[in-house]
């Protein structure tokens, strides 16, 4: 066996037979049986009954990539069924807030809808679903968020944690909507499968089991399907791997809900549903591109303008950015924690409520949900988990919040997440070994891409932009580059380069690039 493959399998604790199972041809992969969802037959029957009676059906979604693709999947499904007595709505983060609410249920009732299908929301919207019941509107709830002990009143619920086999694999809202579409169509639509695979990556679902299979199949279908929305999102570049979804497509769709303060977020559904209407889709693509560029500029500038020196003696970074949209503070928090490697809360002001809305990110060993529960007297609301979440506080409580969270943080020992690293020599950086790494893809949450490390002589490092970046040659077929290292490592001794192996296929050439993420000085 290839010695590099030996080391790779050892890193993931995989046997050769497990490796062969994980890397078998995508055409041999199987999708989950949609009948595994306990209530899917009940939902299918109710929807087909509504179609036979020409009832008005409302699909109510969410403003992120998962919610937009979920809604698109069902709207497109009804389009394929030839049923047009439907409506859909993606709520505005700024005008409507998250999830279906009583006000929207009343508006839906006034327009004569008798059936609501929620996608990517619903399990926490008790008051809204109670209002729907009062109006004699049936609600088919499809969601994937955490189920509380009590379920809201509704006609039926389809959820990844309500399955015949008792499994509890976290799966996204679009995955649930996709399986409902399979039941309604009595077949699998390849295009809708690609949307569900995009959402699986976008919503950071663990890439194991059925999630892994649908992403592998979806990427294959998207590569060969010639779907206009994906071509426009990727600026006519080919889909290479899961990074095309995670780093390009998903952030662009997410930007609609983050930046747009009106109901134009619904254009995202139009973009995916009308995939063959070239002029319309191209026009919406320009809106998406403009919105995404604004998202990048504003979040980058906000992160750059934070004075990190204020936090040198602090355990927790807490900053208040008055002029940054609520939809962007999570991105700023991500940038801050990656820059300073400390837990962070970024606040901005919600001018409707007068509250400070915050987005928090943390490190392993410092659980946000536990810390915030100890500050419940200060926090108006909190949602999330150990490493990420959102919260709201009253503005006059900010100073007390800063003081207490830094005191509480001292009771914990944050531990940076351990990287999966293969120690390599120059001769390991080959195209063959690159293909071995890629054979285990897709990589993501629950199955992360391996890092490679290399001991490299400082005398061979080339510096760019006044020691801001580094580059160099590893062997005849591979070079390395590291951005924002911002250090002169001298001309003697060695450093350890840690990063990912990537393929530069410019003009058809297969030249390898070792993208350095971290540089560790070595005491020589």
Structure description:
Helices cover 39% and strands 19% of the residues. By secondary structure, the protein is α/β, with parallel strands linked by helices. β9 (379-384) and β10 (388-393) form a beta hairpin. α4 runs antiparallel to α8 (190-202), α4 (65-81) packs across α12 and α7 packs antiparallel against α8. It starts with a helix and ends with a strand. 40% of the residues are buried.
Task: Write the SSE topology.
Layout: H1 3-11, H2 16-22, H3 40-52, E1 57-60, H4 65-81, E2 86-89, H5 102-110, E3 115-119, H6 126-134, E4 138-142, E5 156-158, H7 173-185, H8 190-202, H9 209-225, H10 228-233, H11 242-259, H12 267-273, H13 278-304, E6 317-320, H14 329-340, E7 344-349, E8 356-361, H15 368-373, E9 379-384, E10 388-393, H16 398-409, E11 421-424, H17 431-439, E12 451-457, E13 462-464, E14 469-475, E15 478-482, E16 494-504, E17 511-521
Parallel strand pairs: 1-2, 1-3, 3-4, 4-5, 6-7, 11-12, 15-17
Antiparallel strand pairs: 7-8, 8-10, 9-10, 12-16, 13-14, 14-15, 16-17
TL;DR?
The protein has 524 residues and is an alpha/beta fold. The protein contains 17 helices and 17 strands.
Q: Tell me the total number of β-strands.
A: 17
How much of the sequence is in beta strands? Answer: 15-25%
**Poorly predicted residue ranges:** none
Strand order of the largest sheet: 11-12-16-17-15-14-13
Tally the helices.
17
How many structural domains are formed by the residues? 3
- Compute the separation of the termini in Å: 34 Å
